[in-house]
Amino acid sequence: MRIGEVARETGVSVRALRYYEEQDLLPSERSAGGQRRYPASAVDRVRLIQQLFAAGLPSRSVREVLPCVYSGTVTPGLLDHLEAERARISERITDLLAARDRLDTVIANTRNPPAECLHPRD
């Protein structure tokens, strides 16, 4: 696949794909004309990279995790790191849910204000 095809399939910019390649996250080969060529598996790999970035992992951690995803083996140190990242993500989810619940309350009170919030009209 060419870089533009991977970008279209994943919704990731060509610039981001080049960055992934520079960070050793996404391997490519060069054609005789010097164009990047990616295997069909690059689409799934880019989606995984996006998920790991969205979870807050830095590129260094993503670089460590990717081989483990595909081989199914993880070093004890990396496993500790992944468990810590998972705990951090779970905490963020809890915080986001609490923020959403608070917004739901504000929205509900705005649409149907409690009697004590109603101001009498003159």
Structural features, described:
- InterPro entries: DNA-bd_dom_put_sf, MerR-type_HTH_dom, MerR_fam.
- By secondary structure, this protein is mainly alpha-helical.
- The chain has two domains: 1-72, Multidrug-efflux Transporter Regulator, Chain: A, Domain 2, CATH 1.10.1660.10; 74-122.
- Helix content is 65%, strand content 3%.
- The protein has helices spanning 3-10, 14-22, 42-54, 59-71, 76-111, and strands at 29-30, 36-37.
- The chain has a two-stranded antiparallel ribbon with strand order 1-2.
- β1 (29-30) and β2 (36-37) form a beta hairpin.
- It starts with a helix and ends in an 11-residue tail after the last helix.
Helices and strands, in N-to-C order? HHEEHHH
Q: Please identify the structural class as seen in this structure.
A: mainly alpha
Strand order of the largest sheet: 1-2
User: How widely separated are the two ends?
Assistant: 70 Å
Q: Write down the CATH topology of the largest domain.
A: Multidrug-efflux Transporter Regulator, Chain: A, Domain 2
Strand fraction equals under 5%
Shape: elongated
The helical percent reads: 55-70%
Tell me the count of domains: 2
Q: Would you identify the regions where 5 or more consecutive residues have pLDDT less than 50?
A: none
Number of strands: 2
> Using only CA atoms, what is the Rg?
22 Å
Number of helices: 5
Mean pLDDT: 89
Sketch the major β-sheet.
2 strands, antiparallel
CATH class term of the largest domain:
Mainly Alpha
Q: What is the CATH architecture descriptor of the largest domain?
A: Orthogonal Bundle
